Amino acid sequence: MLATDLGAPTSLVLQRLKDVRARQFWDPRHTLAKRLSADAHAPQPKQHCCEQKGVLWDLAAVYPPGELWTGQIPPAAFFDGPVVKVNAGLEAALAGR
């Protein structure tokens, strides 16, 4: 999520991410971002950026296969951003390292 996200992403934007494991959502009320921020405490890995007015922005999160989201959001295998700066860590988490 970026501050410039004023409308739903176009199909051209959505095509940038081709990994079938990834899910993209349009969240105009920042419901998920606020929930991620609220649950961003131990045992969740500590992110090094991206919080503004209680909303996490431009953050990538990777969850173990089969992880179920109930009650509190489960700890992520990777939880950091901004996305443009965490590519190596993100790829390592996706590779299971």
What are the key terms here?
globular, 4 strands, alpha+beta, 97 residues, single chain, 3 helices, two-stranded antiparallel sheet, two-stranded antiparallel ribbon, 21% helix
Describe it for me?
By secondary structure, the protein is an alpha+beta fold. It has one domain. It is built from three helices and four strands. The strands form two sheets. It has a two-stranded antiparallel ribbon. It has a two-stranded antiparallel ribbon with strand order 3-4. The radius of gyration is 13 Å and the shape is globular. The mean pLDDT is 81.
Oligomeric status: single chain
Q: Low-confidence parts, pLDDT < 50 over ≥5 residues?
A: none
Indicate the proportion of strand residues: 5-15%
Number of strands: 4
- Gyration radius, to the nearest Å? 13 Å
Q: Taking strands numbered 1, 2, ... along the chain, how are they ordered across the largest sheet?
A: 1-2
In this structure, how is the largest beta sheet organized?
2 strands, antiparallel
SSE string, helix = H, strand = E? HHEEEEH
> What sort of overall outline do the alpha carbons produce when their principal axes are compared?
globular
How far apart the termini lie comes to 26 Å
Structural class: alpha+beta
How many helices does DSSP assign?
3
Helix content: 10-25%
Number of domains: 1
Average pLDDT works out at 81
